[in-house]
Structure to design on (1010 residues):
């Protein structure tokens, strides 16, 4: 198979757009979300007025979603290197080494705007997109996670969104056969008009078989693989790069439609052709569809591409070049193939019954040139388009500090708890953070037969990696994965809040006896043109950088989602962190909740100072959201406690470990007890504070509730004597009684269980 | 009608003495690798893949129809797979007394192919359900009944269309002929609607053919073979019974 581009000079160009100043041109520019300066730059690069298709190409490639124009200047501050890193940011997914030649490819990505408009398809295609990012590198996906943020439970749209987002995630993952094992969900008023759907995929890959998306080799053919192109999702990338007005909830036509069955075929076909060495370069057609995959592949290789849109498989008639280029139809790949391998490639792909068509050729022009029905619709130089892509150092302005200081807010919170009643508050908190099983049970969590712990275990997800690529000395090797962020801390302090998202992930991994390897970030913020939002973003990057440096966890992949605002209302900063870690022996992984009565110990900082700023208690009590301070962090103490847990776990002492998070020590302990129907007796003694409440309901960093295997307690306490920054204190027990009791208060177990199990469904 | 026992059937070992088991892969099958892995790891059996477009089975002693979403299951689950080329060969294999294990989507394909009676409908709560269930062994004469007699098995389910349905006469036939293999139950083996996750008729989770050699079940025995993965190894007994159904 050879494909020779026609002599480009002889092809007529279609008419350029009409740039006569006036409402029509203003409308055109607005629709393409290009500023006047950006439009002028388009003309500079082309040396002429663009065609409509070219305007669409620039609009998509320079959208916030594709170009990171507001965020690039900040993202370079993230630490991205480490001994385990094999592939850092910039590729489709990051890759880290786990054991021997066995590596993990992983990434998290947002699909917020589509999910708010059409939650089922939006969430489903979010899962599909992140899966393709991972398997187009040659990795086999082994786990999906998701982090979801919705408006308040009482908000009219929330139950609808939750139901359909969960169904969309489930249907897609269940059908393709990748278990959905972890993640996190919460409800906050700032998401009332803009939910967050962040999907993460972890795949396994051999270190020597990592595949990157390069369009190399002049004369090599460009092959289109997968679903036919339709009109769905046109302008998805620019939609995801603008703010919402609430009536946009009806703009369904920009949302893609997912087909997990085709994706399953595409997955198997992709891994098959990569394994057989039939492909030079391969790239998912994701945001901005054919346009971005063509430019990215050509750009990475420093080559040009000629594409003939007449050859693109279509599922509808009379599609224009503009539509063909910008469609975000799902389950499509672009491949670069040596002509000699084309017959063999066709033979292999026939097995998977996927459409594959030659649509172009690699050239040495340094330009992407696109033909459609006798016209040269697009003729754009690749490097200038990328190098001259707008990059903004947007205006930043720090928000005013919270009006109420930490100590005085803590004091008022105590007053509010006393007025509300501690027992009543515990019930509220248990309901808020309660059992999400009605949601998790819609996800296949067991397929792949690797799942040691999934969401219902209430800790990090743990998978047993049985791989011939791993060090044979580690037959029970495991991966631990998390995806989480506390938006309340971020609203209060965008730096510390982002650091907490990293810390929480690392603590969950440590509580599973694991060692964190690397992180992926999904930075969800509001409108970057608002200086306070941009300042939040910058601080978020600083917070992640700080925590990742302190904990030695590089960021190897990620995604930025800006313009999460509706009707001028931005979401709380939500720098979602996904993290993967290694467990040497999954048989030793502690549980997050004991199966029977046990003595409970608190591993905590020598300095134990609970805070109510951004706490779950403050939210439940209706206290101000930007008041007080988030838990303070002592990095030495965090590191020491994590190392201690790993050592105890590795020595086989640790039966149960759970990091103390939302709701503080009491909520953590209560959930550990009641999930399996047990009672609780908790006495924090002096740690409770002089008011007798702070230690139970306040929130802290660097703390864990733990329990030991029988016969291990003495050894653990002995080991704790060597700690410098931490202490291990006996604080009570999970009991066989029918009471949840703490300090001087108590509740019937049945009431606590009822609250816990009535967290969902919402409607 | 008399139910042949395993011993009355001719052993079908290959000359090498190795078990020859084939697993049919449909586009959209997604539990195939788990079955290969489990059979190799726990039983030392290398299961041979059989692609759906094949019109003949190789020389086999038994066939596995794995879980998944064959052809996307966009019609009814299993409906398209039932009309695939390989199923003609599987039907002929069953007609000759061949042993078949259909798990989840495999069970759906068996009913859609009329190799087992009844149908599998959308779960009564209209949601996909993934959870561990307990299963009581029903009474009957098949190898499965004998191997699992009196046992309460804890296995995971993961399906959106697993509600077994059959008309009253059909149900009576299943009951009278001892074809009901497994029923959803409490951890102590009580059966009743409160232990039934999907609304199946008579709490039915799995049935066997009249000759006892074809088992279809919604739960996944291949996912319950390691204590580490969910705490149950009860799937091993089901798979062992499958292996003994043709040896």
């Amino acid at each position: 198979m050879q494909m020779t581009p026609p002599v480009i000079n002889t092809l007529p160009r279609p008419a350029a757009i009409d740039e006569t100043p006036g409402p029509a041109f203003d409308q055109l520019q607005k629709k393409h979300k290009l500023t006047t300066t950006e439009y002028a730059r388009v003309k500079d690069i082309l040396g002429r007025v663009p065609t409509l298709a070219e305007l669409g190409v620039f609009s998509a490639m320079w959208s916030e979603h594709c170009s990171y124009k507001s965020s690039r200047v900040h993202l370079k501050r993230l630490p991205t290197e480490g001994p385990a890193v094999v592939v850092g940011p910039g590729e489709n997914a990051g890759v880290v080494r786990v054991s021997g030649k066995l590596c993990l490819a992983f990434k998290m990505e947002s699909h917020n705007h589509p999910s708010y408009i059409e939650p089922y398809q939006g969430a489903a295609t979010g899962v599909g997109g992140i899966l393709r990012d991972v398997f187009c590198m040659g990795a086999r996906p082994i786990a999906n996670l998701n982090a979801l943020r919705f408006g308040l439970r009482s908000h009219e749209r929330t139950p609808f969104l939750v139901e359909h987002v969960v169904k969309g995630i489930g249907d897609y993952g269940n059908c393709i056969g990748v278990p959905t094992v972890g993640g996190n969900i919460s409800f906050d008023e700032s998401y009332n008009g803009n939910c967050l759907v962040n999907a993460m995929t972890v795949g396994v890959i051999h270190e020597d078989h990592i595949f990157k998306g390069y369009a190399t080799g002049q004369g090599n053919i460009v092959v289109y693989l997968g679903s036919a192109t339709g009109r769905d999702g046109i302008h998805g990338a620019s939609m995801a790069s603008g703010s919402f007005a609430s009536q946009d909830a009806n703009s369904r036509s920009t949302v893609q439609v997912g087909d997990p069955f085709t994706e399953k075929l595409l997955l198997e076909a992709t891994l098959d052709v990569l394994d057989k060495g039939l492909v030079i370069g391969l790239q998912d057609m994701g945001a901005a569809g054919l346009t971005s995959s063509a430019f990215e592949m050509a750009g990475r290789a420093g080559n040009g591409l000629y594409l003939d849109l007449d050859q693109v498989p279509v599922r509808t008639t009379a599609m224009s070049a503009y539509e063909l280029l910008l469609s975000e139809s799902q389950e499509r790949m672009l491949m670069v193939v040596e002509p000699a391998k084309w017959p063999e490639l066709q033979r292999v792909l026939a097995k998977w019954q996927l459409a594959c068509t030659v649509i172009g050729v690699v050239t040495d022009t340094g330009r992407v040139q696109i033909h459609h029905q006798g016209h040269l619709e697009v003729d754009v130089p690749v490097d200038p388009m990328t190098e001259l892509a707008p990059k903004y150092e947007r205006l930043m302005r720090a928000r005013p500090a919270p009006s109420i200081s930490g100590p005085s807010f803590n004091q008022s919170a105590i007053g509010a708890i006393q007025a509300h009643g501690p027992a009543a508050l515990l019930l509220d908190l248990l309901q808020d953070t309660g059992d999400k099983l009605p949601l998790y049970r819609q996800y296949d969590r067991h397929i792949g037969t690797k799942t040691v712990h999934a969401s219902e275990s209430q800790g990090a997800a743990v998978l047993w990696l049985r791989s011939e690529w791993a060090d044979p000395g580690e037959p029970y090797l495991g991966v631990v994965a998390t995806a989480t962020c506390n938006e309340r801390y971020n609203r209060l302090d965008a730096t510390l809040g982002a650091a907490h998202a990293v810390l929480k992930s690392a603590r969950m991994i440590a509580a599973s006896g694991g060692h964190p390897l690397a992180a992926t970030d999904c930075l969800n913020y509001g409108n970057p043109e608002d200086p306070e939002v941009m300042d939040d973003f910058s601080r978020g990057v600083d917070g992640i950088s700080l925590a990742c440096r302190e904990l030695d966890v590089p960021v190897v992949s990620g995604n930025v989602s800006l313009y999460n605002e509706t009707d001028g209302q931005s979401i709380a900063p939500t720098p979602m962190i996904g993290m993967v870690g290694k467990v040497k022996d999954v048989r030793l992984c502690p549980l997050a909740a004991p199966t029977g009565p046990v003595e409970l110990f608190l591993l905590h900082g020598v300095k134990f100072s609970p805070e109510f700023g951004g706490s779950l208690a403050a939210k439940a009590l209706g206290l101000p959201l930007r008041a007080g301070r988030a838990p303070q962090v002592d990095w030495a103490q965090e590191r020491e406690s994590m190392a201690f847990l790993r050592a105890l776990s590795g020595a086989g002492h640790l039966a149960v470990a759970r990091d103390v998070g939302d709701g503080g020590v009491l909520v953590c302990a209560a959930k550990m007890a009641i999930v399996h129907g047990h009672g609780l007796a908790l006495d924090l003694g002096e740690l409770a504070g002089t008011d007798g409440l702070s230690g139970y309901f306040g929130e802290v960093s660097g703390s864990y509730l733990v329990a030991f295997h029988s016969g291990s307690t003495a050894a653990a306490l002995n080991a704790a004597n060597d700690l410098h920054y931490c202490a291990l204190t006996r604080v009570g027990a999970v009991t066989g009684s029918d009471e949840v009791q703490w300090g001087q208060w108590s509740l019937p177990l049945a009431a606590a269980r009822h609250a816990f199990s009535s967290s969902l469904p919402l409607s | 009608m008399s139910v042949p026992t395993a011993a009355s059937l001719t052993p079908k070992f290959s000359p090498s003495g190795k078990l020859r088991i084939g697993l049919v892969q449909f586009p959209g099958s997604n539990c195939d690798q788990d079955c290969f892995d489990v059979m190799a790891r726990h039983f030392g059996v290398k299961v041979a893949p059989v692609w759906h477009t094949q019109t003949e089975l190789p020389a086999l002693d038994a066939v596995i129809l794995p879980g998944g979403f064959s052809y996307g299951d966009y019609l009814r689950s299993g409906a398209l797979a039932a009309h695939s080329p390989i199923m003609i060969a599987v039907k002929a294999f069953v007609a000759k007394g061949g042993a078949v294990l259909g798990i989840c989507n495999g069970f759906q394909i068996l009913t859609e192919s009329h190799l087992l009676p009844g149908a599998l409908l959308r779960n009564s709560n209209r949601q996909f359900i993934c959870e561990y269930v307990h299963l009581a062994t029903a009474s009957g004469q098949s190898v499965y009944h004998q191997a699992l007699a009196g046992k309460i098995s804890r296995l995971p389910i993961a399906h959106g269309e697993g509600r077994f349905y059959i008309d009253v006469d059909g149900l009576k036939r299943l009951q009278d002929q001892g074809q009901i293999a497994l029923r959803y139950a409490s951890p102590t083996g009580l059966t009743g609607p409160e232990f039934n996750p999907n609304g199946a008729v008579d709490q039915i989770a799995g049935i066997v053919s009249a000759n006892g050699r074809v088992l279809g079940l919604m739960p996944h025995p291949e996912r319950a073979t390691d204590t580490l993965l969910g705490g149950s190894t009860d799937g091993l007994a089901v798979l062992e019974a499958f292996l003994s159904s043709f040896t």
